User: Fold this.
Amino acid sequence: MLQNIRVVLVNTSHPGNIGGAARAMKNMGLSRLVLVQPQDFPAHDASARASGADDVLAAAQVVETLEDALVGCNLVLGTSARDRRIPWPLVDPRECGSKVIEHARQGEEIALVFGREHAGLTNEELQRCHFHVHIPSNPDFSSLNLAAAVQVLAYEVRMAWLAASDEPSKVEKFEATSLRSSELATTDEMELFYEHLEKTMVQIGFLDPEKPKHLMARLRRLYGRSAVNRSEMSILRGILTETQKAARGEPHKRKDQ
Ligand code: SAH
Assistant:
């Protein structure tokens, strides 16, 4: 789906920005870069700023006109740092992300167009776009660095893509791999733990079965509040087992002691 999305940079003057854009794209899973009349490309600065996204640079297509860059595109979104005279359908980066993914998943071709560092896109170029995208920046200082603008849009596209493909976007991804251990301990596991805890406390002389003083109720309240998960439960059970061994004068689990 992400291969259907091309990033078009128009008449870029600093090769470093081309490299920065390539890196931003690769970080977010985009790979198709099209350069319309770049002023200095290929260049050392571009590769330096790409730091590892050289493959995106190497595959970049260099063309003469915006029209050439947009061949085969079904949907074109042009970015602009400021309001233009002619009102145009305007979306914010988040709406842009979902629009792009909505169309990409139908197999359509999409272009995100970025303008010159000093002058942005011309009105004529903007009029070739179905939508305009404005990053809602500080109105007194609205113009982002070109590569930073590419980063913002590429990120929104990625978030929309993750949501559409049900890919986990957060730490959940990591947790999903150890899903069982991050699940809350079940009530029966908690009951076994309380039994173990009570026995251990009696064994070490902390709990007097003749005068329990609501100790178990208090501890149930404490652990109940903690939402103990399975891996935490096994730590707690491990501590109790080792405490019991120590109370019986048996050797420690750790061999270095
Ligand atoms: N002086 C230019 C600024 C160009 S910044 C102008 O007023 O248009 C270079 C490019 O970065 C812009 O053409 C656009 O593609 C992108 N960009 C920078 N800030 C942006 C913003 N706030 N919203 C959308 N795109 C932005």
Observations:
- The chain has a mean pLDDT of 91.
- The chain has two domains: 2-164, 179-248.
